[in-house]
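Students often ask why we bother predicting the structure of a whole assembly rather than each chain alone. The short answer is interfaces. A chain on its own may look different once its partners are present, and contacts between molecules only exist in the joint model. In this exercise we take two input lines together and write out one structure for the complete complex. Read the inputs first and try to guess which parts will touch.
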Amino acid sequence: MKRTQNILLILGVIFLALVPLWIVERPVAGPDGEEVAIFGGADDQAKNLIGEIRPDYQPWFEPLIEPASGEIASMLFALQAALGAGFIGYYIGGARMREKMRREIEEAASKRDAA
Amino acid sequence: MHIMEGFLPVEHAIGWSVASLPFVAWGVHSIKKRIAANPEQRILLGVAAAFSFVLSALKIPSVTGSCSHPTGTGLGALLFGPAAMAPIGAVVLLFQALLLAHGGLTTLGANIFSMAIVGPFVAYGVFKLARSLGASLAVGVFLAASLADLMTYVTTSVQLAWAFPDPAGGFMVSLAKFAGIFAVTQIPLAISEGLLTVLVFNALARFNPKELEDMKLAEPREVQA
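Now the answer. The structure tokens for the assembled complex follow.
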């Protein structure tokens, strides 16, 4: 089992997610004293950039349903991740058990042959 | 990489939808064929979809001071071929467009094209190339998944620059601006996606060595526990 490699892979992901929190400095508040948002979505930034390039552009279609609040949106994202992670865990658990039982059967068979 | 609802001009929205449709149809066909031949791989197909579900829900901070998310399409592209991820990615994007107002119906075609078509094909091509040059399974998977992730965001930048060229500098200036938002932000996330995909591949190699061999992804010596 590549245990060391797996641990290093997980640590690598955590490290990459934490580093930005250290190195990115919070932008100074604007002249109006308003806090500048940090770690917003890149999708939103792209939307703002569209507004800069084509100030007259109007989106011609609205989302049919929008999550009623930021909290509800995070709940739905958490649900999406939980469903996916649950399924992957179910699969790996099942595969692991199958592999273990296959090995036990093989061992039992080789013992029987030796006897 | 989610272009928001209504944020592509009508002709672009239609154009990307038309461009994506044949790939989704091809993907449905290839999945049907694969499952008919190997019914036991149905659940593994679920894993590929689940991986994309998880990764595209995780908004991770990046060095540019904004957050973005990986795509998780590399894994499925390697397991089931590049076309298979088009319909799977389409389902993920449709879920996000309908329930989360993340992306949209009018931009679905463009988002499918970047995440579920360009990404998987890059993953598949990079993996084949890396393996033919003698890269190990882990290195091949890492490069495939990372570059697929990154190229998805480059594609989004191209799509937006094409629809919204800079009034003074045109397409290239606009591309540089959008790539500054998407592609640069994505670099550490792409590396993370590569690492996580290797992690899942390690689990598959450990517990399902025969399936990886059958898919001709790994040599027998590489999956022995």
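Check your guess against this: The longest strand of chain B covers residues 66-68.
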